[in-house]
Amino acid sequence: MRAILLGGHGMLGHDIASELRGSDVVTPSASELDVRDLGALRRECRRVRPDFLISTVAFHRVDDSESQPDAAFTMNAVATRNLATAAHDAGATLVWVSTDYLFDGGNTEPYQVDDRPLPLQVYGVSKLAGEHVIRLTTADHLIVRTSGLYGLHRPVVQRVNFADKVLRHARMGRSRISVPADQVCTPTYTRDLAEVIVRLMQSGERGTFHATNSGECSWAEFAEAVLEMIDASTKVERTTAKEYPMVARRPAYSVLSLDALAKVGVPQPRPWREALRDFLAARVSAGAGPV
Ligand SMILES: NC(=O)c1ccc[n+]([C@@H]2O[C@H](COP(=O)([O-])OP(=O)(O)OC[C@H]3O[C@@H](n4cnc5c(N)ncnc54)[C@H](OP(=O)(O)O)[C@@H]3O)[C@@H](O)[C@H]2O)c1
Question: pTM higher than 0.90, yes or no?
């Protein structure tokens, strides 16, 4: 298998690159290949002749997207059209990562792949535009929606993922941290997500899928699990989203159903607690705690 992986030095991209070890994969950095440059994408596709064009690139600073909608749409919609066009012209499958923030949170049970998206913030609208643009441009695509990512490789844009933030507070000896208990999703370990994405690619699946760890929890529950697993004395003060100031609105419930994965025989990723335990063990054993 030959692939171009854009975002391969980011948090999720790094794990996808590891999962694809043994395949012929090029991972240009943003300065080597900018997704906003269709000509450069086409040239790279002509050079590599990939079977897959994979992108984890996004403008995903959810709060900043409210004040910088042009930047969010340029990256998440316009540049996504470049990716879809370049993939289509090269006869490659486009693999693209989307988000649970497409949904408004009104559900009380997990969102199915064909449930109606109704994003609450600019980021979600721009990612939804990206999905539409892909479907309009090339049938040969794999869109994988996910949620609440954390991983061992530091996210390039946000720098510290939520699990690492909690770890950092614990190591700083904070007695308590305030975390909303009224936003429920499925935090997902990027290693597990990378495995599913590569599995879908290898089994020749096309279309839209949800892929997260299994189960669900609030951010407060997740923070409590981190602290309990590392035996920290820091306590979680359960708050509400209203008390926790954020610029962009977030869905109260954005758990994604994994039924579509099951239908194509891809096993449901493990429960979020098991994944978190592995992540923490890897962080702690490396002695490389969070910043
Ligand atoms: N984080 C979450 O909780 C979450 C939740 C749901 C969905 N998602 C989606 O998951 C995907 C991956 O997120 P992540 O946290 O792994 O991202 P990340 O760590 O921030 O990585 C982003 C990557 O994009 C590259 N990049 C930035 N601008 C570029 C440009 N103009 N051209 C080419 N490459 C560019 C960066 O390259 P350099 O390393 O060279 O700078 C970096 O490797 C995104 O699509 C996001 O929307 C994330």
Answer: yes
Domain membership of residue 132 (yes or no) is yes
What atom of ligand 1 comes closest to residue 34's alpha carbon? 32
Reported as type and span, the H/E element at residue 17 is: helix 11-19
What single letter denotes the amino acid at residue 70? D
CA distance 22 to 79: 29
Alpha helices in 22-121 (DSSP H): 38-48, 62-67, 69-73, 79-90
Q: What is the pLDDT of residue 160?
A: 85
CATH code for the domain of 192: 3.40.50.720
Q: What's the mean pLDDT in 187-199? A: 98
Render pLDDT for 212-241 as a digit per residue (tens, 0 to 9). Answer: 999 999 999 999 999 999 999 999 999 998
Is residue 129 within 8 A of residue 81, CB to CB? The reply is no
Q: Whose CA is nearest to atom 23 of ligand 1?
A: 7
Torsion region of 54: left, alpha or beta (phi above 0 gives left; psi -120 to 50 gives alpha): beta
